């Protein structure tokens, strides 16, 4: 399995829908925010200037509600291999301290050339930076 990158977020009042729990779109925001943070934390400066990522697809499985005041732990990792310009990213969203995730998201991200905005095959040096074995 690849390296796991973790961030924590508080559930704020603006995140709550009329049913009293975190709105579905907030889960996608968590997924996007952690993906961007993971990319920026691991990519070399020349990678950050040469490439951008866009989402082609999200698949979300909701398992348990998150509510106002919860602390959320979001964990992400990428697939062990990219497929052409596409790379799968997995995001598990936990209520802090919970044994099972509240939601699980699989996203297919596409790599683009930052200048031309054309699809680019994910180079091996990017895969090597992100699909490393977790030391823990």
Q: If you compute it from the alpha carbons, what radius of gyration comes out, rounded to the nearest whole angstrom?
A: 16 Å
The CATH class assignment is: Alpha Beta
Beta-strand share of residues: 25-35%
Here the CATH topology equals: Thiol Ester Dehydrase, Chain A
Distance between the termini: 11 Å
Helix content: 10-25%
What is the CATH homologous superfamily assignment?
Answer: Hotdog Thioesterase
Order of helices and strands: EHHEEEEH
Given the structure, what is the number of helices? 3
Q: What is the molecular shape?
A: elongated
**Mean pLDDT over the residues:** 94
| Main pleated sheet | 5 strands, antiparallel
Which blocks of ≥5 consecutive residues have pLDDT under 50? none
* Total number of domains: 1
CATH architecture: Roll
| Quaternary organisation of the protein chains | single chain
Q: Strand sequence of the main sheet, in spatial order?
A: 1-3-4-5-2
Q: Count the strands?
A: 5
Quick overview:
With 136 residues, the chain is α+β, with helices and mostly antiparallel strands. Helices cover 24% and strands 35% of the residues.
């Amino acid at each position: 399995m690849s390296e796991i990158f973790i961030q924590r977020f508080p559930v704020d009042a603006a995140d709550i829908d009329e049913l009293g729990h975190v709105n579905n779109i907030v889960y996608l925001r968590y997924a996007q925010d952690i993906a961007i943070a993971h990319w920026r934390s691991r990519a070399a400066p020349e990678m950050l200037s040469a490439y951008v990522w866009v989402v082609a697809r999200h698949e979300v499985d909701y398992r348990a509600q998150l509510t106002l005041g919860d602390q959320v732990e979001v964990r992400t990792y990428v697939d062990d291999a990219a497929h052409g310009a596409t790379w799968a990213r997995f995001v598990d969203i936990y209520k802090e301290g919970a044994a099972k995730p509240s939601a699980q998201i699989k996203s297919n991200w596409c790599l683009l050339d930052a200048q031309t905005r054309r699809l680019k095959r994910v180079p091996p040096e990017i895969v090597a930076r992100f699909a490393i074995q977790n030391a823990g």
